[in-house]
Design goal:
Blueprint lengths: L1 H31 L1 E6 L1 E10 L7 E2 L5 E2 L4 E9 L3 E5 L4 H4 L7 E4 L3 E8 L17 E7 L5 E7 H7 L5 E6 L7 E3 L1 E7 L4 E5 L3 E3 L2
Parallel strand pairs: 1-7, 4-15
Antiparallel strand pairs: 1-6, 2-3, 2-5, 5-11, 8-13, 9-10, 9-11, 12-15, 13-14
């Protein structure tokens, strides 16, 4: 009877050790796996900020009068729930687990971006004319895989970094007179998905 109890204890201890070892191996495998979560864009939002956009962003109200040097525009994608793509791992357990080096990236590629105003911008560009040449993309971020911080024209950016992404833009050319503008952003992906968003009205001084 005593030998049977000893054997049972040894078996239990052995199973516990095996289980702990398995957990450790599993954890190490997770750490060494590259897990990427891709998300589809379902819609986009556009915001106009003033102040330091990284530390103290403030939304521009339609009662304020601002200069182009005061403001930044952001196109912010809203997304679906992510799906998972695992590299360097054949384990189903790892594929359904989380790793410290997980990336969350937007799925898709940009075909074109267009920007319009509902009001005349100057004598050459009226309401609903394309204003792309007045904007520069300064930051793009697809959620985890690619981060770019450099000034590029919209056309050049789409050619160089077509991956769907969050965008920060600056306005380089002021209007020729004080007017209230609602800017419309058109964002089209290569698979045919099309998104439109509008800013709140803002008053930009010449």
């Amino acid at each position: 009877m005593i030998n049977t109890m000893k054997i049972s204890k040894i078996i239990v201890i052995t199973l516990v050790v095996i289980f702990i070892t398995f957990i450790q191996i599993f954890y190490n495998s997770c750490q060494n796996s590259e897990i990427t979560r891709y998300v589809e864009i379902t819609e986009i939002d556009a915001w106009v900020y003033k102040g330091d956009i990284n530390t103290n962003p403030q939304i521009v109200e339609d009662t304020e009068i601002v200069g182009i040097e005061d403001i930044k525009f952001e196109i912010i994608p809203q997304t679906t729930k992510p799906y998972v793509n695992i590299n360097n791992s054949n384990s189903l357990l790892i594929q359904n687990s989380f790793a410290d080096n997980m990336l969350v990236c937007l799925k898709g590629n940009i075909e074109n971006i267009s920007i319009f105003s509902d009001n005349d911008y100057n004598s050459a560009f009226g309401a609903n004319d394309t204003l792309n040449n007045f904007f520069t993309i300064t930051v793009s971020y697809d959620g985890g895989c690619n981060y770019v911080s450099e000034d590029r024209t919209i056309e050049d950016f789409v050619k160089s970094y077509p991956t769907s992404c969050y965008l920060r833009l600056k306005l380089n050319t002021p209007p020729d007179s004080l007017r209230k503008h609602v800017f419309t952003f058109h964002y089209r992906e290569t698979d045919g998905d099309f998104f439109e968003t509008k800013t709140k009205p803002i008053q930009i001084r010449p």
